[in-house]
Amino acid sequence: xxxxxxxxxxxxxxxxxxxxxxxxxxxxxxxxxxxxxxxxxxxxxxxxxxxxxxxxxxxxxxxxxxxxxxxxxxxxxxxxxxxxxxxxxxxxxxxxxxxxxxxxxxxxxxxxxxxxxxxxxxxxxxxxxxxxxxxxxxxxxxxxxxxxxxxxxxxxxxxxxxxxxxxxxxxxxxxxxxxxxxxxxxxxxxx
Length: 191
Hints:
The protein is an alpha/beta fold. It has one domain: Rossmann fold (3-Layer(aba) Sandwich). It is about 55% helix and about 10% strand. A 5-stranded parallel beta sheet has the order 2-1-3-4-5, sandwiched between helices. Helix 1 crosses helix 7 (about 165-190), helix 3 runs parallel beside helix 7 (about 165-190) and helix 5 (about 100-105) packs parallel to helix 6.
């Protein structure tokens, strides 16, 4: 077993590798798409499973509430946060369509769907990305190494160069905190 220092150094290595390979252009595209949508009231929908569901809730909490700046609430919805819908739909139909069904309900042309999956292969997130594309929403995938199947159904891929779920999730936290800070700053400048 690694020591805490070794684990933290490995975590830092993954974050440093992500900094080296994550394109400023892709990050800027993601920030721009989300800012454009939110500044005119279009939705930002966010979804993921397990730890990625918690990340989806974290992101929407920061943007509906506040991150660093006092500002108006933003139209962000976490598709993983309604257990009544998720359990009813999954029981009666399929968990694979639980997020895409909500995209039908809450999505809008000009909006954005941010799908999170460490493997990039979560079928319910893939289906949500497909539904969002059909509705002329911008699709963004936050994934692990290579993007998995989500790479093919996302307009903007933000992938962490690792296959270790906890290390990917730690890098995801850094990425989406940066996204939240930039979106908030840009939205505040428009008001």
